[in-house]
Amino acid sequence: MSEPKRKVAVVTDSTSSLTQAMGQEYGVHVMPMYVMFGTQTYRDGVDLDAELFYRLLRGNKRLPTTSQPTVADFVQMYTELSHQAEAIVSIHLSHKMSATLDSARSASKELPDVPIHVIDSRSTSMDLGLIAIAAARAAAAGQDATDVVRLVEELVPKTNIFFTVETLEYLHKGGRIGGATALLGSALSIKPVLHVRDGQVEPLEKPRTRKRAIGRLLDLMAEQVGASEAVHAAVLQCDVPDEAQALAEQVAARFHCVELLTTEAGPIIGTHCGPGTLGVAFYTA
Questions:
Q1: How far apart are CA 194 and CA 146, in angstroms?
Q2: What structural domains does the chain harbor?
Q3: Rounded to an integer, what distance in angstroms lies between the CA atom of residue 257 and that of residue 157?
Q4: How far apart are CA 206 and CA 69, in angstroms?
Q5: Residue 78 and residue 266: Cα distance in Å, rounded?
C-alpha cells in the first residue's frame, strides 16, 4: 500500500546555498545548477562539492561558467514529486541573475495537471535558503499550497542579505555586478559591502579594510533587527570557514537568534563572488 501524498513539496535551486544533505534535513528538494570548467560539466552539489570546486578554481587559469537547470531537469523533478505531493511550491533565485525561473515556469506549463507554484525570491544564497526552509517547515506542519505560497510571498520582502567580497573581479566577469560597476575604479583599495536589492547585487559601502567590512555586516543587520527581536539568520562563506565561525559567534552574541545556520555558500556563489566572500542573511520572526 502506497503512502498518502503530502500536501506540498518544496523545491529550490542550488544557489540557495543548501547542500543536498541540508535539503534532505529540512525537507527541501534542491535542483542542481551547472558549473563548467572548460569542457567538463558538473552538477552543483551532486558531483561538485565546495572542496572540489575550490581545488579546480585554484588549478584553472580561466574562471568557470554556470548555467541554469534545463526545462527537462525541472520536468523530471516535478513529475517525480507529483507522485509524492498534491502540489509543488518552487522558489528560485532572482530572475535578474539567472534564467532558472524561466526553466521552472516552462516546465510547469508542460505539466498542466500538477499544481506548481513558481516564485521569484528576488534574491539568492541563504536569503533564498532561509525562505525555502521556512516554506518546507510550513509544508511539514500540514499547511496547504495556498498557505505556503502566502508565507513565501510575505518573506520575500522581509529577508535581507549583506556580504563582503575579497575582490569585485568575479562579480564583474560573471556579469552579476549590477550597480556595483561604480566601484570598479577603486576596486583594489576597498573591501566592498554589498547587498541584493530589487533582485540584483548592489553596492552599499566602501570600507578599506576587511575588518571594517565585517563589522559593517553586523551594524547593517542591527539597523534592521531590534536587540530583542527574534531573528532567523544564516552566515554564508566562500572558502573562509574560520571567519564565518567568528562572524556566527558575533551574530549569536548580538542578536536573539531563534535559528542560526553557518554554511558554505556553494560553487555557484563561489563562481560569481569568489573565495573570501562572507555574509549574513536574515529575517525577523
A1: 33
A2: 6-33+68-155 (3.40.50.10170), 160-284 (3.30.1180.10)
A3: 19
A4: 34
A5: 23
Grid cell locating 14: 542550488
**The C-alpha cell that represents 210 in the structure block:** 576587511
pLDDT in tens, 30-80: 999 999 999 999 999 999 999 999 999 999 989 999 999 999 999 999 999
**Other Cβ atoms closer than 10 A to 123:** 29
Q: Is 264 exposed, middle or buried (0-12, 13-18, 19+ CB in 10 A)?
A: buried
236-253 residues labelled b (16+ CB within 10 A) or e (exposed): bbbbbeebbeebbebbee
- Positive/negative CA dihedral, 231, 92, 145, 80: negative
d(CA 174, CA 124): 15
CA atoms within 13 A on the CB side of 231: 29
